[in-house]
TrEMBL record:
This is Uncharacterized protein. Belongs to the argonaute family. Ago subfamily. PROSITE patterns: PAZ (PS50821), PIWI (PS50822). Residues 374-564 form the Piwi domain. The lineage of its organism: Eukaryota, Viridiplantae, Streptophyta, Embryophyta, Tracheophyta. PANTHER family: EUKARYOTIC TRANSLATION INITIATION FACTOR 2C. SUPFAM superfamilies: PAZ domain, Ribonuclease H-like. Residues 85-198 form the PAZ domain. GO terms for biological process: regulatory ncRNA-mediated gene silencing. Gene3D superfamilies: 3.40.50.2300, paz domain, Ribonuclease H-like superfamily/Ribonuclease H. GO terms for molecular function: RNA binding. Keywords: RNA-mediated gene silencing.
């Protein structure tokens, strides 16, 4: 029944078997990574900068659908290390010519981190292109390196060895060597005789410019994406796949046709004091002109710290004043003047400067029994770890709401940008920008007929190579009904690369009460009841980021946790 495609309740093991069968041929033709396949022959290579390039590819997986078994194919792209001579790669990485000068310690460390684990092939032995995996970079220059050549203690220099053994005269003796052996028996290779092996996917974190270039490469109009997918299916010739034939699998080269409809845009309710009290979005767009937030938040005290060197103090003051004016015009109770004038700070001083500035502000606000409601941070467009550092200090150490703005936003001085930032600030300080008219009139099915709470959950995993970092689980839940517009969120650190959310339901030992149920779900249910005065009679739970292989495991574990919490809560 299942293999004939007439049963949609597919055993996971059967799907995995068929998936393996259909992956066999592409795995031999292309470079497989996860559920995708990549090749330089599937489209143009695009440089991403710093020695990386993008390769086009396709995603493939078998899915059970109402039409039977379907093959899901989509276009994709990812970053590969360019197959360059190592010296050229290092020059791109450092954005500097290194062929006539030695490396600084900082440059050497940067190259070492980038090249560790990368495969190279040697070019000084003619057709014998032996391959090695880089384990490190020497601290000494090539001309200073020696090694024992026999048990008698005879020592040769790397320069001498390459000249005598291969007749190769090393030119760039001031550069370090690549280490391709272990620490006990190191093997030194001069950078100029090594070339990076083609087809190595780059799995580390991309910088902002590389991400932007990769997105430009993958962003397509639907008709162009359809054309590329159709061409990919024909190029792969699934009808001729010998492994598919062996299992009696036949795949149509036509796209599946699915009946669909365009849902009407919901009407949005704004504050009655605005010139426009509601709004019907057109083509998914609308703005805040003549409208006021349905519930404006309060920001009575705020300050601004400028980390962008190219933003002068006067421009920072003008930007903050215009932003404060927009927040006020949009319906917020927002003070037009900051507690302290905007201050310029070096990015590497973020923690010390923020804490010092916060204490200065509290020296003014403390005697008035007031708190600092908001910090506005002006950041460089390419800010590296600065954004995360600022959020950590503000949200964890100081306990204040923060709003970051990029330099390009500051220079535009655009009303639409001010309005967008004002909307973000309002939500962060507890306001509501808009609500659905259908929610107020109780016309949303399965949501407004009885008290309903809506959850959203996801787990963020550390980047490859960050082996000691925990995964972070985040759960949000609606805190108003019937509008379901305001949300509270909780985060929890858990085991490295653990997809199951461990803290949805917990039992802790109370010295007096004994076992007591707790966890993220319970906290959010209690918060919902305090906010609305109602116990939720229905739970809608959205879960993101679960792979096909883990779907049923996550479903059973987390659904069971929700049920346990719900029983205890009732």
């Amino acid at each position: 029944m299942f293999l004939a495609g007439r049963h949609t309740e597919a055993p996971q093991e059967a799907l995995q078997v068929l998936d393996i069968v259909l992956r066999e041929l592409p795995s031999a033709r292309y470079a497989p990574f996860g559920r995708s396949f990549f090749s330089p022959d599937l489209g143009r290579r695009q440089p991403l900068g710093d020695g990386l390039e993008s390769w086009r590819g396709f995603y493939q997986s078998i899915r059970p659908t109402q039409m039977g078994l379907s093959l899901n194919i989509d276009m994709s792209a990812t970053a590969f290390i360019e197959p360059l001579p190592v010296i050229d790669y290092a020059a791109q990485l450092l954005r500097s010519d290194i062929q006539s000068r030695p490396l600084s310690d900082a440059e050497r460390v940067k190259i070492k981190k980038a090249l560790r684990g990368v495969k190279v092939e040697v070019t000084h032995r003619g057709n014998m292109r032996r391959k090695y995996r880089i384990s490190g970079l020497t601290t000494q220059a090539t001309r200073e390196l020696t090694f024992p050549v026999d048990k008698g203690g005879t020592v040769k220099s790397v320069v001498q060895y390459f000249q005598e053994t291969y007749g190769f005269a090393i030119q760039h003796t001031y550069l370090p060597c690549l280490q391709v052996g272990n620490q006990q028996r190191p093997n030194y290779l001069p950078m100029e005789v090594c070339k990076i092996v083609e087809g190595q996917r780059y799995s580390k974190r991309l910088n902002q410019n590389q991400i932007r270039a990769l997105l430009d490469e993958t962003c397509q109009y639907p008709r162009d994406r359809e054309r590329d997918i159709t061409q990919m299916v024909k190029h792969n010739a699934y009808q001729e796949d010998p492994y598919a034939k062996e299992f009696g699998i036949k795949i149509s080269d036509r796209l599946a046709s699915v009946d669909a409809r365009i849902l009407p845009a919901p009407r949005l309710k704004y504050n009655e004091t605005g010139r426009e009290k509601d709004c019907l979005p057109r083509v998914g767009q609308w703005n805040m002109m003549n409208k006021k937030m349905v519930n404006g938040g309060k920001v009575r005290s705020w300050m601004c710290v400028n980390f962008a060197r190219n933003v002068p103090d006067k421009l920072a003051r003008d930007f903050c004043h215009q932003l404060a004016q927009m927040c006020q015009d949009s319906g917020m109770d927002f003070a037009l003047e900051p507690v302290l004038p905007p201050m310029s700070v070096r990015p590497d001083q973020v923690e010390r400067a923020l804490k010092a500035r916060y204490h200065e502000a509290m020296n003014i606000l403390g005697p008035q029994r007031r708190e600092l409601d908001l910090l506005i941070g002006i950041l460089p467009d390419n800010n590296g770890s600065l954004y995360g550092d600022l959020k950590r200090v503000c949200e964890i150490d100081l306990g204040i709401v923060s709003q970051c703005c990029c330099t390009k936003q500051v220079f535009k001085l655009n009303k639409q940008i001010y309005a967008n930032i004002a909307l973000k600030i309002n939500v962060k300080v507890g306001g509501r920008n808009t609500v659905l008219v259908d929610a107020l009139s109780r016309r949303i099915p399965l949501v407004t007929d009885r008290p309903t709470i809506i959850f959203g959950a996801d787990v963020t995993h550390p980047h490859p190579g960050e082996d000691s970092s925990p995964s972070i689980a985040a759960v949000v839940a609606s805190q108003d009904w019937p509008e379901v517009t305001r949300y509270a969120g909780l985060v929890s650190a858990q085991a490295h690369r653990q997809e199951l959310i461990e803290d949805l339901y917990k039992v802790r030992q109370d010295p007096q009460k004994g076992p007591v149920s707790s966890g993220m779900i319970r906290e959010l249910l209690i918060s919902f009841k305090k906010s609305t005065g109602e116990k939720p009679q229905r739970i809608i739970f959205y879960r993101d980021g679960v792979s096909e292989g883990q779907f049923y495991q996550v479903l059973l574990f987390e659904l069971n946790a929700i049920r346990k919490v719900n029983v205890c809560f009732i």
